[in-house]
Amino acid sequence: MGALDEGHYCVVLENGVKLGDDGFEQEPETVAIEDAVKVLLQGLGEDVNREGLRKTPLRVAKALRYKQNVRDIVQGALFPEVGVENGTGHAGGAGGLVLVRDIDLFSYCESCLLPFQVKCHVGYIPSGQRVVGLSKLSRVADIFAKRLQDPQQLADDICFGLHHGINPTGVAVVLQCSHIHFPNLQSAFLESNHKRLSKITVGSGLGTFENHDSPNWLDFFGLLRCRDISLDNIRSRNSCKDSWCPSRSQKVGPSGNPDMETAVAAIVRSLGQDLCRKELVGTPNRFVKWLMNFKDAKLEMKLNGFATMPLKTVGLTNYKEHIRSEVNLSLWSLCEHHLLPFYGLVHIGYISGEEINPVGKSLLQSIVHFHGFKLQVQERLTRQIAETVSPLLGGDIMVVVEANHTCMISRGIEKFGSNTATIAVLGRFSNDPLARSKFLQMIPSYSL
Amino acid sequence: MGALDEGHYCVVLENGVKLGDDGFEQEPETVAIEDAVKVLLQGLGEDVNREGLRKTPLRVAKALRYKQNVRDIVQGALFPEVGVENGTGHAGGAGGLVLVRDIDLFSYCESCLLPFQVKCHVGYIPSGQRVVGLSKLSRVADIFAKRLQDPQQLADDICFGLHHGINPTGVAVVLQCSHIHFPNLQSAFLESNHKRLSKITVGSGLGTFENHDSPNWLDFFGLLRCRDISLDNIRSRNSCKDSWCPSRSQKVGPSGNPDMETAVAAIVRSLGQDLCRKELVGTPNRFVKWLMNFKDAKLEMKLNGFATMPLKTVGLTNYKEHIRSEVNLSLWSLCEHHLLPFYGLVHIGYISGEEINPVGKSLLQSIVHFHGFKLQVQERLTRQIAETVSPLLGGDIMVVVEANHTCMISRGIEKFGSNTATIAVLGRFSNDPLARSKFLQMIPSYSL
After folding, report:
1. Chain segment A385-443, per-residue pLDDT in tens
2. What positions does the domain GTP cyclohydrolase I occupy (chains A, B) (predicted)?
3. Are residues A220 and A281 in the same domain?
4. Most A CBs within 10 Å: which of B8, B24, B139, B347, as the mutation test of the A interface?
5. Torsional sign, CA B115, B116, B118, B124
6. What is the ipTM of this complex?
7. Where residue A149 sits, what CATH number does that domain have?
8. What digits encode the pLDDT tens for the residues A62-75?
9. Are residues B276 and B337 part of one domain?
10. Alpha carbon of A201 to those of A176, A188, A215, A232, B446: distances in Å?
11. Are residues A122 and A193 in the same domain?
C-alpha cells in the first residue's frame, strides 16, 4: 500500500518533508513511532505481524505527525478589501466581526493521548484593508488541533496564530470540546449508566477581545445564540486542566509495564514534545493504564465461567414463542487498525417463549464487554457476540452493533457525522427477513 | 502561494500525476481549465488580474481535477476475517450486513456544473473471509462523487466500484441528495419564498441487492430507520434525470455568450468528458445562463433608481425611537474566490421612531439581491448593504449576514456543518454594544 492510500493529505512537515512522499516512511521520527507502537501491541499480547495489525504502526505515525505552517496558509489568502479600517464606526471596520461557526475538528489530549472532538467557532475583526479567506480560519484551527493539546491551550494557540498571521483588530476563539470518557475494565461491569463524554467550553481572545469585558465579546456571543454558550459557562483559565481529562481522576501509580511506558514516551518525544513539561509527565503512564484495559488474555478466562449459567426464566403460563430483544447494551472497544476507540450500542434479538431474567441481562452486558475490551474490528465483534450468546439463548440470534469510530473522524476522511451498523444472524433469523425486520423495529433510534 | 495552500489533498490523477506536485500547474488540462475560467470571468465584466480573482482559475482547476483510483484504495484495505463466508446462516455471513451511515459528500451536477450535497449510506455483505476497512467505503464513494454526476449514476458508480473492488456477496448504496436551487435574476425579485433546495433519494444494489425485492434491502432500510427513507420514496431509475436539476426546467435557448459556452465546453472536455453524451449536451449553455445572473453592470443602474424612494411610514402618534429590524431577507451570491454559490439570510437593524412600509421592506430585499447577484465576498457584501441602506433608514444601521458557503464544503477543508456570520455597523450601533446585543436577540436562530 502506498503512502497515499491511508489519507488524502499531502502536508508539509515542519522540516519540509511532505507527508505522502515516500521519504516520510524513512524519517527517523516515523520509524521511532512505529517501533514504539509495536512495543505497545506486543504488550497487549498481540502478534504485530497479524494482517489486521501489520500497518497499524505506520497509520499511527502518519496521523500523529500531521503538521503545517500557519504563516504559509494565511499569507497566501489575505485579500485587499476597501473600507476595512482600524477606526470604529465604519461598516466592515471595528465592529465588523467575521465569524465562522460550527467547524468540526478533533485534537489529541496531552494528558492521555486520546482524540477529543471540538466544535470550533472562530472570528476576527479585519483591519488594514484586508480580509482573510474564510477557509483559512478553519485551516489554522486544524493545524493547532492536530497536536497534543488541552482545550485552553488549543484555543490560545489558534488565537495567537491568527493574530500574528492576519494582524487584525481583534481575534476570538470559542471551543466546545468533548472527550471520550472510557470506563476502566472494572467499572464497566459495575456502572450501567457510565457517562460517555466529558465536556467543556473554553475561549480565548486577543486585540479588542483580550479583555473579557470587551463589548466585542457581546457581539461574538450574540452570533452564537442557540448554542448554549455564554461568557458565564466558559471555563476559567485555571480550573480546566485539572478536571477535563477523565484519566486525571484515576488513581496514580505504576502501570506495571515500564517497557510500554518507555515506548509511549518515545512517541511523545518523536512529536517534538518535552516530556518534562508538567502536563506531559504522567501521560505515558496514563495511556498505558488505559491501553491495558484491552489486553486480551484475562477476559477469555472470565467468560468461560459464565457459559453454563441459566439465562432465562421458565414457567410463563402462556408459553409462546416471540421475537424478544435486549437493546442498548453499552459497547466500548479499540479499533485494531488505528489503535483508536470505537463505542456505541449493542442490540440482541432472540426467539423464545421465555423471558430473560435480570441476571441474564447483566450477563449479556458482560459478554459485550468481554468481546469489546480487546483489539477489535466491529464485524468480528458482532459475530463473536452472536456466537457467544447463541447457546445461551436458544440458537436463533440476531445481533446489531451501532458504533461511532474515532478513526472515521480523526484519520484521513474526517467524516464527523458517520457511524457504522453491523448485523450478525444465526438460526431462524438467517432465513426469515420478516423476523429480522421485526427485530430492527424494536431498536430505538441511535444517538449517543 | 504554493500548490499546498489551497487544499490538503495529495491525490493521484488518473494519469499518475499527484495534485500537490508543482507539475500539476503545468498540465495541459489544468491550463485549459484556467484559460476557460478566465474567459468566464471576462464575460462577467471582471478584471481577471484583480487580486481577489487572480488565483480563482487555478482554484477551480484543482477542485475539478480531483481523481483517485478505486482499486488502489480498496485492495490495500481488505482484511482477512474468519467466519465470513458466502453461505447464509453464519454470523458475519450473508445477512451479516455492514453499513456505514450518514457520510457527508458533495458532487458536481452534470446538467449545470453546480455542486450538490449528498448524505451517503453505503453497505455490503462480506464474503470470501475478508472485510474491507470501514473508511474505504467512504473513500470510494468520495472518488465517484468528485466527478460530473447525476444522483442515480453516482449511486450506480459507487456500487459498481465497490462490487468489483471487494467482491462481496452484495453491495448497496442509498444517497439523499440536495441540489441548490438558485432563483434566476428575475424570479429572485418576484418570489419571496423561493425553494432553496431540490432533493431526491436514489439507491443502487448489486449481488444479493440487485433485485429490489431482495430481503437484504429490508435489513438495509431497517438500519436506516428514523431517516425518512424507504423503498417507496426512492426515485425510480427513469424519472430522476428529468426533474432533479433545477436548470433543466428553465427555458431552452441561446445564452447569447458563445465564447463563454465554448470556454465551459473546454472545461468539460479537460475533465475527460464526452460533450456529445446526451446529459452533457446542454450543460455549457445552462451553466453560462446561470453564471450571467451574476454579471455586475446592469444591477448598479437599477439600484440608482431606488435610492430616493421614501422607505418609512411617518405619523405614529406615539413617536419614539426604537431598535427596529427586518430579518430573514433571502441572500444568493457567488464567491469570487471559488466561483461557487453562497446563500443565506440577511438581517437589517436600524434605530428609528418610524415603522418601515411594505414597499420599503421589498426594497430592502431588492438591495440584498442587487449586492448579492455579482461576484462577492461576504465581508464586502455586508458592508455594501449597510452603506446602501444607511441613507434610507436614518444612518444608525447594523447588518448581519449569515450564509452557507459551498466552497467551505466542496473545496479542501470540507467542513459540512460550518457557516459564516458577518456584521457591519454604522452610526450609533458603532459605539453602543447594548444596542447591537439587543438587535442580535431579535434575529431568529439560523437554519436553512
Report:
1. 999 999 889 899 999 999 999 888 877 678 888 999 999 999 999 989 999 999 999 99
2. 33-180, 260-443
3. no
4. B8
5. negative
6. 0.86
7. 3.30.1130.10
8. 877 766 667 777 77
9. no
10. 4, 27, 20, 10, 21
11. yes
